[in-house]
Batch of 2 targets.
Target 1
Amino acid sequence: MKNVWILNHYAQEPGGAGGTRHYSLARHLLSHGWCASVIAASVELNTGRQRLSAGERKRIDHFGGIPFMWVRTPQYKGNGGGRMLNMLTYALRVLIPGVTRELNRPSVVVGSSVHPFTAVAGLILAKRFRVPFVFEVRDLWPQTLVDLGRLREESIITSVLRSIEKWLYQHADSIVVLLPQAAKYIVPLGIPEQKIVWIPNGVELDGYPEPAQPSTLDTFTLMYFGAHGQANGLNNVLKAMAELKKRPGMRHVRLRVIGDGPLKAELIQLARELNLDSVEFEEPVPKQQIPFLAAEADAFVFNLIDSPVFKFGISSNKLFDYLAGGRPILFSCESSNNPIEEAKAGITVPPENPEALAEAITTLVKMTPIQRAAMGHAGRDYVEKNHGFDALGARFATLLNELVSERR
């Protein structure tokens, strides 16, 4: 059995709320002769929960045979200096030899963004053990921060992050990207295209039963679950619900917003200001409960702000959960790929246009149950063919085997 270390600052265990990409990949790598150890920070991303007890510097937990090592990092709130300290602490502590001593020696090391310091630590570890290094790019830093207005293009911080980013691309033995058009961003930096491998996000299909018929209650339930952050632009969805209230025959439409994030309090306040008694905010749920939650929806809402960063595509965890749930999807986003249009699994509208989204909701509600069911089944068929983690795990294993073979 060969060993791969996967460094992901924000990795989530299967019992938590949020994406579990690396648990799922690790689970399927086992059947291909690879044992993956996931090395993550002890503080959970959205909740700030500290996983370690007082006095613990690290701990290894096992989930379905997959070791997760939690490395102690300080708790923080918001996106300021506390979060930056948390990032740097994680990157520095995983480099202390005693921290990873209990793990089996790696044959390959994977450093996964979002922030680059995790990948820097991964590259240093790979050089220490003289094994191949894989740079997994889940977000294009610092380009994402520039496009979201959090960093200025001409700032010193942006310049430093771009230098780190290019250094990582140059020294990686392979670059795994989640965004389908990420190569258009990376290759112009002087990086050979053959180093880049696309392995998107996906879904554990064995957790999803065949889509059941939605309830026949008088209420039509729209559902959003996932992060409540700047890029999600959920104020657009709330304004669409306010527009919907003005339309005859639409008062039975409800929206359930499930999850957490830095803008949740602001969104709850906006819902109050708009008198949205048709909107309910709920706490996040563990990943294993998502299939049962999805079955309670009549349709899903996927929403992102209008930003140039999406010209390289999207690979959102929740989008594949929506598709697996077998319900039609309202897709409010401008990206270079559109899985909903490809699958014929819903209705696409421009981003940041509440009136257009309200009109799409109205159209969906007025469809027959058979028409909506056809969209849902089309989405389920699409995700089964393209985004099952069993197939994605096999692709990842092929890459790891090639790297080990080349190094030998």
Target 2
Amino acid sequence: MLKRSKAAGTIAAVLAASGIYMSGCSLLPDKQPEKIDPHQSVSLKDGTKTAAKAKKGQVLTELYLIDKYGYVVPQTIALPESKSVAKQALEYLVQDGPVSNLLPNGFRAVLPANTQFTLDVKDKVAAVDFSDDFKGYKAADEKKIMESITWTLTQFDSIQKVNLKMNGKALKAMPVAGTPINEDGLTRAVGINTDIDQVADITNTHSVTVYYLAQTGDKEYYVPVTKRVPDKMSDDVEAAVEELVNGPSPSSRLVSGFMDDVKLLNKPEIQAGKVTLNFNKEILGSLDQKMISNEVLKPLVLTLTEQKGIKSVAVEVDGSKKLVTEDGKPLSEPVTRPEKVNTGSF
């Protein structure tokens, strides 16, 4: 079922344990970080014995780390309860810091060792003021650091935008390679793991973020990738599905579970936060069982619930809702985003 990129390496043809539980709640905790009740983060079941779980006195938090292929990837890790979960999340992005003994195999923290900072959150804007140690990174990591900071902080409802400073002075560009920083601040619109390899001209294009699969050892995880699509594709749901079908760049180490002949039979319907998709039968992992595989369903839900206003995904095939998941469970109800992404421990 899996369609690998031409240079994808040795990723297994069947990825079994996928590391997320599709009936979770919202990705985002409530309100200001200082007021979040850490007990709102509950243990997540993901079908494996190695899922990240929050014990008493811990809270599950997504840290955007760098994997061995250079992708910025969310990894859910149980951290100690804190009155300021946003500040703590950044502290766990520092190399040789408290995250050292918690890093999944093949992953590394993104901020230079010994980096100090202050964090102030006001009106959904997080102002991060770094010490001089912040500029101790390699130029090749610059955009990845911007993406990691932005996506880690904006997982919280209280933060929609990030402003960067160093020694009290606002940064107009990153300090090593000079990557410009939007004067209005950083949001998820900056993208993540941006892939323009197959785009001849980005003029008259816009971005959508889709999730592909990667593998380290025998463990699989989901990687968000921002793709550029033509402006004439005004429906971002259709554009995202098309990019899932197109698959990742041939030069990537990622794979897609969508076959080339998967198609939408109707325009997506969005109502009250639910998007309904009617596919042809080629989306089925088993025609006889009317089964949608995990490698199709999970990236589809992660991808579409990344878009504003979409909370759940309902799947039909040739107009029928009589479908089952890979575990044999009925797929008659819409599927919501998991509370956290990539909860499997490595």
